[in-house]
């Protein structure tokens, strides 16, 4: 933008030089000095880019210089004043109406025949100044938007990687739990059975010569026990499927129980459909959104009862948190709601917040069948 | 090509978000239904498409062109039938249509031709000279439609065109929507009459609180809730019934008998009623009634939003 200001000043300066040459014919050394000092001061302004205070100082100095020159030497110099004034206003970030008034002040001090030229140059400068201002504001706005988008992106990326980490961890946890369960069960049931069968068989070997009848009975026992053990192994293996559903709904129940106990709120959980299909990540979203919705209900709703409902439909999972508080006619999206929406969106879902009859927050997540 | 493309559309009124980051596309030749309760954001969206409201954020394209940047182009290609009647009571039917068509730049013989065509189309061909003051509600609605279609738009937007009119006019309007569609117009249709939307639309979006919560053909929408349907068959002599044979019939998932009614759950996409009835006849069971309990859009809406459409 400063190139435009420099251009503006240069054009005006050339005009001033041209007029004083064509009128006076030949420049006095004083005038030369005047032009050069004007150039010096004004070239310093863009050079001092980073130091706004010095820029301002330069601009003010230039304005004073121009005014001085206009009084002492040639009134034509006054043409250079408005640019400096606008520049000062621009640097101060002030209002343009104020700038317009400033430009008109010298009007009373200059001879009548120079007023039209002055008005022309002032309005041209004003136009330029105004355009620059609009342009700068736009640029600033775009920059700000870019910055918020960048922050958003960063935050979302972070939460994405956190989700990935969560999936990894929950996979690991489930594996671990499964392994523990298996070894426990094998130890408790199969192990004991095998040990029992072994004892009977050893006893039978010892009795084989002395008491064949008893030995045969013991062997029979061992066979029965082994059969049962085999059956147990089969059952244990069949039961191996991970129970993420148990984890999910139990955690929610626990949360609801705590809620009822700590806040004297009547909270209930209902569910319908096959909860098995809900993935750990979807459970995480359901939990976090439920927690957020409850916070909201407690804070604003004045609710005495909260209902949690999880329904697995054919192609969607629907999780509803509804309270019986006063709700809200118009819902203003705060960080909480935006957070819920983002979480749902990360799994391809949506959140509806309704305040007509108490708060009712519905999280809808798509269900991938057979996936 | 998509007739209408909406990307990340948002409309705010102060703090209130009427339309919330909406994404949508309507392809050529579709009748696209917009289903939602009052205040869901349907009319706000439509008003933005027709440039009556300024867009807070996002973009709308009509026939691939941005409606803000190429406002005239989009207006020329959209015909809008607003929810509130937009006709002049003091002008004749002919003058009304010709006035609106004139706004779209039609002149001379073309204007005359199109005006007559539009009036004929909505069944007001014999009412050229009549004043809308003397019209019934349904006739006014039809005139309103004529005003919107005289300039042959590619996309016609109808915002609740059947509110408060007699059944005859309603049928007429529904049929003309189908006819317009056959003639190559794409239509966006909003209503909270579920049957209309179900009957007319090739694709439907369910809108709530300014968001599209589900979108697709009516079959797809229903399949969000369930893939099965229930058939209730009332029978007189239930003791003759062979439940196991019924269970083996094609497409049947489960069968249960409740007093005098056999309730059969079967796969939604299979029409097995013939087989079921044949089986009943074979068992010499006397059938007294047959009722199909397939999910409709109303149940879809109710299930997803927890509210009735006409709350």
Low-confidence stretches of chain B are none
Going by CATH, the homologous superfamily of the largest domain in chain A would be: Histidine kinase-like ATPase, C-terminal domain
Tell me the quaternary state. Answer: heterodimer
- Beta-strand fraction estimate of chain B: 25-35%
Overall mean pLDDT of chain A: 82
Describe the fold and architecture:
The complex is a heterodimer of chains A (371) and B (311). Chain A is of the alpha+beta class and 371 residues long. Helix content of chain A is 70%, strand content 9%. Chain A contains ten helices and five strands. A five-stranded mixed sheet of chain A has the order 1-2-3-5-4. In chain A, a hairpin with a 3-residue loop joins strand 2 and strand 3. Chain A is elongated and about 145 Å long. Chain B has 311 residues and is α/β, with parallel strands linked by helices. Chain B has two domains: 2-223, P-loop containing nucleotide triphosphate hydrolases (Rossmann fold), CATH 3.40.50; 227-294, YebC, transcriptional regulation domain (Alpha-Beta Plaits), CATH 3.30.70. Chain B contains eleven helices and 14 strands. At the A-B interface, strand 3, strand 4 and strand 5 of A face strand 10, helix 8 and helix 11 of B. Chain A: Residues 178-244 form the Signal transduction histidine kinase subgroup 3 dimerisation and phosphoacceptor domain. Chain A: It holds the Pfam family HisKA_3.
List the helices and strands and how they pair.
The complex is a heterodimer of chains A (371) and B (311).
Chain A: H1 2-24, H2 29-47, H3 52-72, H4 81-92, H5 96-104, H6 115-207, H7 212-238, H8 244-263, E1 266-272, H9 280-301, E2 305-312, E3 316-323, H10 335-346, E4 350-354, E5 360-366
Parallel strand pairs in A: 1-2
Antiparallel strand pairs in A: 2-3, 3-5, 4-5
Helix pairs in contact in A: 1-2, 1-6, 2-3, 3-4, 4-5, 4-6, 5-6, 6-7, 8-9, 9-10
Chain B: E1 2-13, E2 16-27, E3 31-35, H1 42-49, E4 57-62, E5 65-66, H2 71-77, E6 78-81, H3 93-103, H4 108-121, H5 137-149, E7 155-159, H6 167-182, E8 186-191, H7 194-200, E9 203-208, E10 211-216, H8 218-225, E11 228-235, H9 243-247, E12 252-258, E13 261-267, H10 273-282, E14 287-293, H11 297-305
Parallel strand pairs in B: 3-8, 3-9, 6-7, 7-8
Antiparallel strand pairs in B: 1-2, 1-4, 4-5, 9-10, 11-13, 11-14, 12-13
Transmembrane segments (chain A): 6-24, 60-81, 115-132
Pfam families (chain A): HisKA_3
GO molecular function (chain A): ATP binding; phosphorelay sensor kinase activity; protein dimerization activity
